[in-house]
Amino acid sequence: MDKQKSAKKKRDALLLIFILAGAAVLALVFFFMRRGSEPENVLIKVDGRVVYDDSVIKDNTFTVDGFDGGYNIVEIKDGKVQVTEADCPDKICVTSGFISAPGETIVCMPHRVVVEINGGGTATDAVVR
Ligand SMILES: [Zn+2]
């Protein structure tokens, strides 16, 4: 009777170890998926609508059409993003310069354009602060 009980205990302990090991492996996988070499993304929204979502390590220069006319020329180079030219009245987006860290944004209020860097789960942390 006692022997059976201890055998069951042993099985339970083994099961627990397996569950814990599984959880540890999962945690590690998540950890590396978040931290790994996964590059950040450049996310561009016009009036809340995503018009561009691609890796920041992919060099690219293109024109984003503003909400009601106008344009912003966005340049992605060497992992940094910049609005190089725009026909908005305040030019705040142009003078913002480069952004390169997750959570950083360039906003063009007149064109309702938001350029942001979105990376490995840290973007949310940066917003919450
Ligand atoms: Zn602007």
Describe this structure in words.
- The protein has 129 residues and is of the alpha+beta class.
- It folds into 2 domains: 1-36; 41-128, mini-chromosome maintenance (MCM) complex, domain 2.
- The chain is built from 3 helices and 7 strands; from the N terminus they run αβββββαββα.
- The chain has helices at residues 2-35, 92-95, 122-128; strands spanning 41-46, 49-55, 60-65, 71-77, 80-86, 105-108, 113-118.
- It has a 4-stranded antiparallel beta sheet with strand order 2-1-7-6, with no helix packed on it. Strands 3-4-5 form a 3-stranded antiparallel beta sheet.
- It is rod-shaped, with a radius of gyration of 24 Å.
- The relative contact order is 0.15.
- The chain binds zinc ion (ZN).
- The site of zinc ion (ZN) has 9 residues, from α2.
CATH class of the largest domain: Mainly Beta
Q: So how many helices?
A: 3
Shape: rod-shaped
Percent strand equals 25-35%
User: Biggest sheet, in brief?
Assistant: 4 strands, antiparallel
Give the termini separation.
58 Å
CATH topology group of the largest domain: mini-chromosome maintenance (MCM) complex, domain 2
Number of domains: 2
- Helical content stands at 25-40%
Classify the secondary structure makeup into a structural class.
alpha+beta
Query: How many beta strands in the DSSP annotation?
Result: 7
What's the oligomerization state?
Answer: single chain
CATH homologous superfamily grouping of the largest domain: N-utilization substance G protein NusG, insert domain
Strand order of the largest sheet: 2-1-7-6
Blueprint of the fold:
Elements: H1 2-35, E1 41-46, E2 49-55, E3 60-65, E4 71-77, E5 80-86, H2 92-95, E6 105-108, E7 113-118, H3 122-128
Antiparallel strand pairs: 1-2, 1-7, 3-4, 4-5, 6-7
The structure holds zinc ion (ZN).
